[in-house]
């Protein structure tokens, strides 16, 4: 993973809107697909991965890029923008960035942008809005 140097624990003051917090690769390999299939069953279209698996990959990118996190954060909302299809064996490049932050009613709101790409093809993008604990 590449990106900003991680603090001991991420606090609200550490986030700078517009900054990239991490870049990492997520392999859509046989092991990941087997874990998904064990829980949810076989995909209806074997040459195209389920959108839920892509959302899980997006959340994995967020969790891996921004750690350690303080206890007590609240995942308030999430938006998703699906692009092209992902296929078994693809290696996705993920980027996690701080889009915005604001203090509102004594709550620390942080908006993170997460994008998944396969080469030049957008696979999934979205935002995660979090009430940050510290």
TrEMBL record:
UniProt cross-references to InterPro entries, sorted A to Z: HotDog_dom_sf
Cross-referenced SUPFAM superfamilies: Thioesterase/thiol ester dehydrase-isomerase
Protein name: Acyl dehydratase
